[in-house]
Specification:
Layout (H helix, E strand, L loop, with lengths): L1 H11 L26 E2 L2 H6 L10 E2 L24 E9 L5 H11 L3 E12 L4 E6 L2 H15 L3 E4 L5 H13 L4 E4 L17 H8 L5 E2 L3 H7 L8 H12 L5 E4 L9 E7 L4 E7 L9 H14 L4 H18 L22 H4 L12 E4 L2 H6 L4 H11 L3 E4 L6 H18 L3 E4 L2 H7 L3 E4 L6 H8 L4 E6 L2 H10 L3 E4 L15 H11 L4 E4 L7 H4 L8 E6 L1 H4 L4 H16 L10
Parallel strand pairs: 3-4, 3-6, 6-7, 7-8, 8-9, 12-13, 12-19, 13-14, 14-15, 15-16, 16-17, 17-18, 18-19
Antiparallel strand pairs: 1-2, 4-5, 9-10, 10-11
Helix pairs in contact: 3-9, 4-5, 5-6, 7-8, 9-10, 13-14, 13-21, 14-15, 17-18
The structure holds adenosine-5'-diphosphate (ADP), (4-amino-2-methylpyrimidin-5-yl)methyl dihydrogen phosphate and magnesium ion.
Keywords: ATP-binding, Chloroplast, Kinase, Magnesium, Metal-binding, Multifunctional enzyme, Nucleotide-binding, Plastid, Thiamine biosynthesis, Transferase, Transit peptide
Family: Belongs to the thiamine-phosphate synthase family.
Subcellular location: Plastid, Chloroplast
């Protein structure tokens, strides 16, 4: 890639004798600017790139002079699969909203491989910066070389550069091993107001690093410091600052408006020496802005590494940052004034990815199992029946549909789920794992002849509830081993709801309970008339409730019928539930 870049430069730009002058005095023939803009070629680099026929005293122009499309990545020529690469040279933020951590996460979120060279280790949190431990310049250089000489980078992004030595040695390396893009975030002060790099580095940034940069991204205080202290507090002043910074050699300058006082619209100003772009965005009300600057710069680096040109890269990055800020506006991390940016919010839905099941055994207390033919007979939809059962006191609901086709079943499940969510009651789907996934139900209830529990668990993940019908302690133990959350055991009494269903009786139920390491709900012919017998004290500790079909849904008033069974079960719970483990 580097060879390609240099070849492209050498064919487009005349490496004429006018460059054959001492570095300190010569001016670039392309942009006409002074010595600080010269991009020196060292003898080492010449040895690496024999296709360039220039003498050691010749110089390439600065980044600013290059045609815009030189930076475009070429990802398609190599046989093996490639991933766009960004190397970030920056400080570590222990709070992980800014710095190296922000860069890695932002690049990762945008599909780019991010390598690192750490310039300083900071002790930082949402309150402020408690300490800075600088990494020696030669070791920063070692990290950069280790990356560039093996993995390579399409774009280098810099953040906190705490010393002149670090900046100078980085520039030396970048002159020797050019990359396609360089994004410089001139980090001086953290958003908490702590100094991360002193004014001593300003000259090195201006004279050495900026001329190599494709983009420099100061915030308002940084822009002001770079141009010598003049205030930058309005869009007009941002334009003036961008112009002055552009004179220092970078191809583009982005002055960021996050610190613009008192406006609802934040404007970032992008300037390439010819065109201005005022890029507006709404201010998002959130305390979580620690790391916005690092995030924006590394996102731009990532987009450039993918082959975007500058304006689309900046716009895409602003969009990403807006999504991050909006999605995490109310997130609470840390006790201080400024929360961190949460870059990987799309991956970090911890409730979904949690290894902890949402299942609460107490929810089995009054378990309503719908029956489509009964509801049809009584002229009500499944979701109406579900609402009535929940209002009568059902603590968990299962949709059991044996007649409808798949599309109808899904619709029924979706409307019922809305109702159940309104009341905060879990809703499971009988047998059909596909329906459960399609409507994002809380789980499934499986029979012995349905999809094996272990497979269901593998498909649904740890966050969903799985119940299994079991008639024996052996089945219950297997259900537990395979990852079920609870066992439904019965029929306790004879029932018409399920044909050819063997009745196991109260004795059979208790045997299952004693052999089951997981909670059990009793099912089969249970009503207000016999629920007390099922739940009678003393009872097994893991017998958590009763599941009811006909006594809820084959009734004129589902709510009233549910409430009637509920009062019986609750009465049983008043007995001291000392575990009874004897059989
Ligand atoms: N509250 C906010 N709502 C929306 N965008 C913001 C907010 N704060 C900062 N930004 C945006 O974040 C980016 C970084 O800006 P800024 O805060 O000025 O940088 P820094 O973090 O370096 O101080 C800019 O694009 C800016 O417009
Ligand atoms: C190590 C390190 N680097 C940079 C920043 C700037 O943070 P911000 O992006 O909020 O300006 C920081 N606070 N810490
Ligand atoms: Mg900043």
């Amino acid at each position: 890639m580097a060879v390609q870049l240099l070849q492209e430069v050498s064919t487009r730009l005349p490496l004429s004798t006018t460059h054959d002058k001492p570095l300190a005095k010569s001016a670039c023939t392309v942009c006409g600017l002074g010595s600080r803009n010269l991009y020196g070629i060292t003898p080492t680099r010449l040895r690496n790139f024999p296709s360039l026929t220039v003498s050691t005293s010749e110089y390439l122009p600065t980044r600013k002079c290059l045609p815009r499309d030189v930076i475009r990545a070429d990802m398609g020529t190599e046989e093996s699969r490639r991933i766009p690469r960004v190397l970030t040279v920056a400080g570590s933020d222990s709070g992980a909203g800014a710095g190296i951590q922000a860069d890695m996460k932002a690049c990762g979120a945008l599909g780019v491989y991010c390598t690192t060279a750490i310039t300083a280790v900071t002790a930082q949190n949402t309150v402020g910066v408690q300490g800075i431990h600088e990494v020696p310049a030669d070791f920063v250089a070692s990290q950069v070389k280790s990356v560039l000489l093996d993995i390579g980078a399409d774009v280098v992004k810099t953040g906190m550069l705490p010393s002149v030595e670090i900046i100078r040695s980085l520039c030396d390396i970048l002159r020797t091993y050019p990359v396609k893009g360089l994004v410089v975030d001139p980090v001086l002060i953290s958003t908490s107001g702590d100094e991360l790099a002193g004014p001593a580095i300003l000259d090195a940034l201006r004279d050495d690093l900026f001329p190599l940069a494709d983009l420099v991204t100061p915030n308002l205080p940084e822009a002001s410091a770079i141009i010598g202290g003049d205030p930058v507090t309005t869009v007009a002043e941002m334009r003036e600052a961008a112009e002055a910074i552009h004179q220092l050699g970078p191809r583009y300058v982005l002055v960021k408006g996050g610190h613009l006082p008192g406006t609802n619209t934040l404007i970032d100003v992008l300037y390439d020496g010819v065109e201005w772009h005022e890029l507006p965005g709404s201010r998002i009300e959130t305390r979580n802005t620690h790391g916005t600057g690092c995030t924006l710069a590394s996102s731009i680096a990532a987009e450039l590494a993918k082959g975007q040109s500058m304006l689309p890269a900046v716009l895409a990055s602003k969009r990403y940052l807006k999504d991050v800020l909006e999605e995490n506006a109310t997130l609470k991390i840390g006790e201080g004034k400024q929360g961190p940016v949460n870059h990987l919010f799309k991956l970090s839905d911890w409730e979904k990815s949690s290894t902890q099941s949402k299942f609460r055994p107490e929810s089995l207390l009054l378990y309503a199992v719908t029956d489509s033919s009964m509801n049809k007979t009584w002229g009500r939809s499944t979701s109406e029946a579900v609402r009535a059962a929940i209002e009568g006191g059902a603590t968990i609901v299962q949709i059991r549909e044996k007649e409808a086709d798949t599309g109808e079943f899904l619709q029924e499940a979706e409307t019922s789920l809305k109702v159940a969510r309104d009341y905060g009651i879990p809703l499971l789907i009988n047998d059909r794992i596909d329906i459960a996934i399609a409507c994002d139900a809380d789980g499934v209830h499986l029979g012995q002849s349905d999809l094996p529990v272990a497979r269901a668990r593998a498909i649904l993940g740890p966050g969903k509830i799985i119940g299994v019908s079991c008639k024996t302690p052996e089945q219950a133990e297997k259900a537990w081993k395979d990852g079920a959350d609870y066992v439904g055991s019965g029929g306790v009494y004879p029932t018409n709801t399920k044909k050819d269903n063997k009745t196991i009786g109260i004795e059979g139920l208790r045997e299952v309970c004693y052999g089951s390491p997981i909670p059990v709900v009793a099912i089969g012919g249970i009503s207000g008339a016999n629920a007390a017998e099922v739940m009678a004290y003393p009872r097994p500790e893991n017998l958590k409730g009763v599941a009811v079909v006909s006594a809820f849904f084959n009734q004129p008033d589902v709510k009233k019928a549910t409430a009637a069974v509920k009062s019986v079960v609750e009465e049983c719970l008043k007995d001291v539930s000392v575990p009874n483990t004897s059989s």
